[in-house]
């Protein structure tokens, strides 16, 4: 999860952990905060491992503390440049990664500092995101959050559910928000908006590829 300050990235990561732990998965989250971009960009990393598989193996899984290039199944980005940074870091790959990103822009410090128009091209960022991912889902999630008087993390959680890339149903996602007990009504409305948009949004998808020897 690539998130900027005040967008609820920590809440989103905790929701995913709670979702897994209440539905027969072992879960772990870590985060690496940053302060250089806008209100501070943070990478949250979540791993889920089926509890039944651990029991069958007779050992607890060893979960990683950070994402590794080429080894990430799902990337959630709260803004288009953050999606671009995930691509740049190699976290998004055509072999395995579903990239779910908001397409709105919050301009980076380097863009604002330019003497002229230093803005990066949104069209180029979108093209790179679509080319890099196995499946790309993108729409303006900031506007969707504003429409429901909520925060973008709830829309991202809904989009994750609507993308159908985790082994959980909509009701299990919604129960996670309800267990949180904070801003539940507006969060559920924003979740529903994200779910419905992701479920019907035209997406760039490709067949899984096998890495060359």
Quick structural summary:
With 213 residues, this protein is an alpha/beta fold. It is 43% helix and 18% strand. It has a four-stranded mixed β-sheet, sandwiched between helices.
The total of helices stands at: 9
Overall average pLDDT: 89
User: What composes the largest sheet?
Assistant: 4 strands, mixed
Strand order of the largest sheet: 4-5-6-7
Task: Say what oligomer this is.
Answer: single chain
Protein structure class: alpha/beta
Which regions have little confidence, pLDDT < 50, spanning 5+ residues? none
Shape: globular
**Strand fraction band?**
15-25%
Can you walk me through this structure?
By secondary structure, this protein is of the alpha/beta class. Helix content is 43%, strand content 18%. It has nine helices and seven strands, in the order E-H-E-E-H-E-H-E-H-H-E-H-H-H-H-E. The chain has helices spanning 9-21, 51-57, 80-88, 109-113, 122-132, 141-147, 152-163, 170-180, 184-200; strands at 2-4, 25-33, 41-50, 74-77, 98-102, 135-139, 204-205. The strands form two sheets. Strands 4-5-6-7 form a four-stranded mixed beta sheet, sandwiched between helices. It has a three-stranded antiparallel beta sheet with strand order 1-3-2. Strand 4 (74-77), helix 3 (80-88) and strand 5 (98-102) form a beta-alpha-beta unit. Helix 1 (9-21) packs across helix 8 (170-180), helix 3 (80-88) crosses helix 5 and helix 7 (152-163) packs across helix 9 (184-200). The longest helix is centred in the last third of the chain and has 17 residues, at 184-200. It is globular, with a radius of gyration of 17 Å. The two termini are 30 Å apart. The model has no long low-confidence stretch (mean pLDDT 89).
């Amino acid at each position: 999860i690539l998130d900027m300050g005040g967008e609820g990235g920590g809440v989103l990561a905790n929701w995913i952990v709670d979702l897994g732990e209440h539905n027969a998965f072992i879960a772990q989250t870590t985060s690496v905060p940053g302060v250089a971009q806008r209100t501070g960009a943070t990478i949250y990393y979540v791993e889920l491992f089926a509890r039944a598989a651990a029991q069958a193996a007779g050992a607890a899984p060893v979960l990683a503390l950070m994402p590794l290039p080429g080894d990430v199944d799902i990337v959630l980005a709260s803004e288009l440049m953050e999606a671009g940074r995930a691509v740049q870091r190699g976290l998004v790959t055509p072999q395995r990664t579903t990239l779910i990103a908001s397409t709105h822009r919050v301009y980076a410090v380097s863009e604002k500092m330019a003497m002229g128009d230093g803005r990066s091209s949104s069209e180029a960022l979108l093209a790179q995101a679509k080319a890099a991912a196995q499946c790309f889902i993108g729409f303006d999630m900031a506007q969707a959050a504003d429409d429901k008087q909520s925060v973008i993390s709830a829309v991202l959680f809904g989009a994750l559910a609507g993308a159908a890339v985790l082994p959980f149903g909509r009701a299990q996602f919604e129960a996670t928000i309800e267990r949180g007990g904070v801003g539940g009504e507006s969060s559920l409305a924003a979740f529903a908006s994200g779910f419905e948009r992701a479920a019907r949004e035209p997406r760039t998808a490709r067949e899984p590829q096998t890495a060359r020897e």
